[in-house]
Amino acid sequence: MLPFDIEYYRPDTIEEAVKLYRRLRENNQEPVFYGGGTELLTRARLQDVHYDAVIDLKNIPEVRIHGQKGDWLEFGAGLRLTDLADQNLWPLLTATADRIADHTTRGQITLGGNLLSTIPYREISLPFLLMDEAEALIATDNGIERRPMADLTSDSFIKPGEFLVSVRVNGGEAKGVAYRSHKMTRQDWIDYPLVTVAVIKRPDGSIRAAFSGWAGFPFVSSEVNRILSDTSRSPRRRAQQAVSHMPVKALEDLHGRREYREFVTEYTLAQILDELEDD
Amino acid sequence: MREFTQPEQVSLTINNEPRTVVAYPGETLLYTLRGDSLGLTGAKPGCENGDCGACTVLVDGVPVKSCLVLTAEVEDHHITTVEGLREAPIQKAFLDHMAFQCGYCTSGFLMLGHALSQHVDRADEGRRTEWLRSNICRCTSYQEIADAVTETCSSLE
Using the beta-carbon criterion (under 8 Å), do B131 and A103 form an inter-chain contact? Predict the structure, then answer.
């Protein structure tokens, strides 16, 4: 039971949802778009967030698309993380999704909910951040707009009143890479990450890495990617260099001290690079 | 569009019986199940934060933590609670393996194990371990619980 009263709406179309949000705001209400609800319900119980109305998007067909259309792999924002794993359309996405929360909760967390979470990890974004061709379809007052997934962490990626409909990536690019996705936790298997690292090796041999848990947001770094791709150095040396050239300092929090995060990230990167040498 | 702005009737199928309950828009499924109207207290409130799994029930055969679902979301869906298992193999296995101590987490684990046994084609050891990590037993009966779930899945193969 939530500690405050809310209204619940389940629109059937994108247009209905966008108009409803606008109408509720005009009535001075605080609506939120609702996917799986795991974050909104837990934060409400902690009285960490307040809203007057939830707009449940799960009944909108475009939010549940899941498949390949032409060159694109399409993933609706309302897909559960277990849906991604069950269909396994993109193995790197499955590998990352399968280490978020626990199995039952993954059956409730949605792709869109994790991508746009206020919790800093947003691990499901890592595979998308590694791709050249990855874009989000966002419902706005002006219809559907396409925005690059590379802008996910910018303030302008999604504005109040807009919601994520789906994400798509170029299927050839997404499936044409060797990959690893490792989540490292301090102690328990089910926990927030010290760091989650997703790494791809592209057909030309270059390496890209995306990180969650290191900072308050997921990120990629062209400088780090350049270092990781320099095969004139050993995997261990590249991992050391990468960690010392991160664009932001590692977090220091309850999950681990900065030095420990750096150590775990370096160790994980070296292990992944070693494995990818053989792929 | 479904609009639900005040307490009103919600139709659910619970343990294969059609039921109608009055629920608030912000009411969780856990609260509705345990309320006076239904009185299904098998689903236990533990952390009410999605961590412990004591409130696990099945929605259309899939385990969910009922503290993390609004009743309005599962309108017209099929809900199975521990009261609806009715001597399912997982229950006998729990008895045979004494897979409980205080029993508070038991109904959640039973629902998880029952759902897993219904997906027996996928219930290899890795899958079982992964599913069972969703719930917490404060008394640490994990080995006995895993044994009971393994036996149930094996017997149905």
Answer: yes
Which of B3, B48, B56 lies at the smallest CB-CB distance from A104?
B56
Question: What is the rounded CA–CA span in Å between residue A115 and residue A123?
Answer: 8
Q: B72 with B16, same domain?
A: yes
User: pLDDT digits over B85-125, tens only?
Assistant: 989 999 999 999 999 999 999 999 999 999 999 886 667 88
Give percent above pLDDT 70 in chain B.
97
Residues 6+ apart with CB under 8 A from A61: none
Q: Say whether residue B5 is in contact with chain A using an 8 A CB cutoff.
A: yes
Nearest CA in chain B to A59: B1
pLDDT in tens, A3-53: 999 999 999 999 999 999 999 999 999 999 999 999 999 999 999 999 999
Q: Which residues of A touch B110 (CB under 8 A)?
A: none
For B47, the 3-state DSSP assignment is: coil
Residue A4 with chain B: CB contacts under 8 Å: 26
Q: Which residues does A189 contact at the CB level (< 8 Å), separation at least 6?
A: B133
pLDDT at A278 over 80: no
Domain shared by A67 and A128, yes or no: yes
Q: State pLDDT tens for residues A118-129.
A: 999 999 999 999
Phi and psi for A182 in degrees, rounded to 5?
-120, 130
ipTM for the complex shown:
0.96
* CATH number of the domain bearing residue B38: 3.10.20.30
Q: What is the mean pLDDT of chain B?
A: 95
Give me the mean pLDDT over the B38-65 stretch: 97
Listed residues A173, A194, A226: the one ending a domain = A173
Chain B: residue whose CA lies nearest to A191: B51
A164 in any annotated domain: yes
Task: Assess whether A164 and A107 both reside in one domain.
Answer: yes
Contact A21, A161 (CB under 8 A): yes
| CA distance to partner chain A, nearest, from residue B74 (Å) | 11
Distance CA A262, CA A240 (A): 9
Whether B48 has its CB under 8 Å from any CB of chain A: the answer is yes
Where does a domain end: A173, A206, A232?
A: A173
pLDDT bin (cut points 50, 70, 90) of residue B154 is confident
Domain CATH for B137? 1.10.150.120
DSSP codes of every residue in B107-147? HHHHHHHHHHHHTGGG--HHHHHHHHTTS--TT--HHHHHH
* Domain, as residue range, for A227: 178-277
